[in-house]
Amino acid sequence: GQLTKVWKLSARELIDYRAYRDITLLHFRVPDQTLTAAFNFTVSEKLVSSQLFSGCDPRKVSLFLKYGSLPVINPDGAKFPNNFSISNRVPMYNAEFQSDEVPVILNVTSPIPGDWFAVAFLSYADPNNDQILQDGLSPNCAAMIESSLSVVITQEVTVILPEEETSRQVDEETQAMTFKFFTLCEIEFIPAVDNWYFITVSAPHNGSANPIHFSLTVSFLAHNSTENLRLVNTTILNHLTTDELIYDIALLLKDFQKFWTLVPLVRQSFTAFFTYNFLSEHADDNKGFFSINVGVEELATMQFEVNYVSDIGGTLTFKMKLEESSNLKNVTESLYNVSVVACLSYQSRVIPLFPEELCFNYAGDFSGSYSQINSTSESNRIGTIHVPFPEPGLWFITLKPFCFNIANLPIDCTPDLGTLNVSLIIESNMCTADNCGRFGDCYNYMSGGFMFSTCVCNHGYIGWGCTDDSRVTSLSDLLIAALLLTLSNMFFIPAAVMAIRRKYYTEAFVYTCTMFFSTFYHACDAGEDIYSYCLMRLNVLQFCDFYSAILSLWVTLIAMSDIRGALKSIAHMSGAVGIALGTEYNRTSLWVLVVPALVGIAVMTQSWVWRCKAQRSCYPSKTYWKLYFPPGVLLVAVGLVCYSFLQTKQNYKYVHSAWHIIMALAITFLLPSRK
User: Fold this and answer.
1) Measured between alpha carbons, how far is residue 215 from residues 155, 163, 231, 424 in Å?
2) What is the DSSP string of 106-117?
3) Is the domain of 268 the same as that of 375?
4) 232 pLDDT band (50/70/90 cuts)?
5) How far is the C-alpha of 419 from the C-alpha of 410, rounded, in Å?
6) Domain assignment present for 594
7) In what order do the strands lie in the sheet with 114-122?
8) Is residue 132 domain-shared with residue 176, that is, in the same domain?
9) 380 and 402, same structural domain?
10) How confident is the model at residue 255 (pLDDT cuts 50, 70, 90)?
């Protein structure tokens, strides 16, 4: 069929991935009866501003796409928290490409109709290797993504009614025929409830001109049906031999005939985003959990619904605990151990298996998240499953008890076991159940018109729940960084003392301020709340640090110039005001440093030329030119190279400390004597 464009999104900016908050969210809606969906993405570079460069280089882009909810990803390779359900979810599609305006198309055959979400970002790179450049030294580029959705929709679909035979014929010349039937929620044994199922029939291209006659009939069997069931897919247990396969299918079919005990649930919503839970009808609302009795000859089932859009941005948590009882204590002390296996599944009921630790569904494969609790120890009595960004629709929990011996092999349970009491928690929270733990904070973010929650980690922790400590900076490294960045400012003491001895009192005051604010700025910023002390707000200290550092450069150049009296006062005040304005406007800009430096050098050079012409001799003295000026200029050049080009996040504590020392030493060489 012909592709028809049905969805188009405006251009959106992509940024570097450091945490999930950095994603750009793209939303699409796939129409019903779509045979093929083509998701088209194009990323281009847009030059925002640049004083020295005129072009942008292509960058690597990562994109992930899935149905129903936001993709759960870890581009930084961080470990997911324990008991996180990542596999056995709705399939996810991904692509890696360049921001070079070359379109990338993701084709999805027979897509689920409804909401589809893509997350895109500039591909992850280790931030420790990021170069720290001043604004203006590199082009300021924005990666813009444009996206659209084109589909092929089948128009001729025949509806099959239950228990009614539909007959057709097909040959090589006939296009494929499409049929559909609907499965109601009340139906017992189906792959998914409240869904349309599609059947496509086409003739094989083997050169035969004879038409193929066929008929279709859809039948739904009740839970206690005595009719024989035949599994079409014979590869459901392909790791077993033929004899084992027949045996296991027989067991599964026997389980199919077990009675489902449906436990009704009531939804309770709270004021915070993505925060709700499900309780049994007679549970205490204030406790947050409820208890059920599970018999060994039945499958206890619960179903609940996750709403579209409004419920998908948090983490769904299922927790169960096997409670102690007299019957359970008696059998575990003398006969066998008891296990309760739970399967959390999306859209379809499943059957827990033991000891395979699998969840079997009616489609003939294994799906769902598996959790097991048993009576062997207190810690083993509790099981948990976390589902980040759950898909919307019906979810099912199925519980089944099993008895096993000391060799962990299943055995028949005795009648004196009775029923087992299991406490359950079914809830959703922002971010994670423990609110990102000790080393993270939970925030809600908006992207593409949709809200989602995610953790922002501190102290070098990474991961979905800020539980991965593989990149945590050691305490010794934090202490070294704090000491280097603060104590290196003590090298301004000789510069301030020399300025006082040479009666440069204004300059001495500025050098002292530079030392003071730089020390306390880095004391507040470097220790990551462990070895840190903030005298004032970090933003205030940062402004004072940048401002006093540039002002030190300015007053040094004015001191080197041959201007005196009123002109010198005007130069000091105009520089103080201009530098304050530039620092407040953009303190990380290259030009905030370059403009005062160029103006100061121009003033200094012009004053030296005038002085040389006036006294017809070299100015400053030959001693200054030979012994002090060259090493001072060399130190300044080395310091500027370190500050502008060599700093990365990994070596920042060393290179920036060297910048402090080099600039302080340069002042001691460049500051002239009064003579």
Assistant:
1) 21, 12, 19, 46
2) EEEESPPSEEEE
3) yes
4) very low
5) 18
6) yes
7) 24-30, 114-122, 60-67, 92-98
8) no
9) yes
10) very low
Using the 3D structure, point to which of 370, 397, 429 is the last residue of a domain: 429
Q: What does the DSSP 8-state code read for residue 79?
A: P
Residue 103 region, left (φ>0) first, then alpha (ψ -120 to 50), else beta? beta
Residues 577, 651, single domain; the answer is yes
For residue 464, being part of any structural domain is answered with no
Q: Using N-to-C axis directions, what is the helix angle for 565-586 and 590-615, rounded to 10°?
A: 160
Q: How far apart are the first and last CA of the chain?
A: 91
* Owning domain of residue 85: 3-153
Contact (CB, 8 A) for 429 and 6? no
CATH of the domain at 581: 1.20.1070
- Spatial separation of the C-alpha atoms in residues 26 and 15, rounded to whole Å: 14
Gyration radius from the chain CA atoms: 36
**Is residue 524 located within the same domain as residue 418?**
no
167 and 297 co-located in one domain = no
440 within 8 A of 466, measured Cβ to Cβ? yes
Q: Per the confidence metrics, is the pTM higher than 0.85?
A: no
Question: What pLDDT does 675 receive?
Answer: 62
Q: Is the pLDDT of residue 209 over 60?
A: yes
φ and ψ of 222, to 5 deg = -75, 170
At 619-648, the pLDDT tens digits run 788 888 888 889 999 999 998 888 888 888
Burial track 281-302 (b if 16+ CB lie within 10 A, e otherwise): eebeeeeebbebebbbeebbbb
Say if 239 falls within a structural domain: no
Contact 583/551 with Cβ under 8 angstroms?
no
Q: Which ranges of 135-269 would DSSP assign to H, the alpha helix?
A: 242-256
Residue ranges of alpha helices (H) inside 90-241 are: none
Q: Tell me which DSSP letter residue 645 carries.
A: I
Closest to 124 in 3D by CA, of 82, 88, 94, 93: 94
Number of domains observed in the structure of the chain: 4
* C-beta of residue 499 within 8 angstroms of C-beta of residue 555: no
Nearest to 95 by CA among 109, 81, 85, 105: 105
Helix, strand, coil shares of the chain, percent, nearest 5, are 30, 30, 40
Region of 288 on the Ramachandran plot (φ > 0 left; ψ -120 to 50 alpha; else beta) = left
Per-residue pLDDT band for 159 (boundaries 50, 70, 90) equals confident
Most confident by average pLDDT, 7-21, 156-170, 410-424: 7-21
Task: Please say whether the beta carbons of 650 and 602 come within 8 A.
Answer: no
For residue 514, give the DSSP letter. H
Q: In this structure, is residue 231 part of a structural domain?
A: no
Q: Return the CATH number at 100.
A: 2.60.120.680
**Amino acid occupying residue 173:** E
Q: Distance between CA atoms of 19 and 463, rounded to whole angstroms?
A: 8
Q: Are residues 628 and 482 in the same domain?
A: yes
Q: Are residues 187 and 306 in the same domain?
A: no
Considering 153, 183, 199, which residue would you say is the last residue of a domain? 153
d(CA 237, CA 214): 30
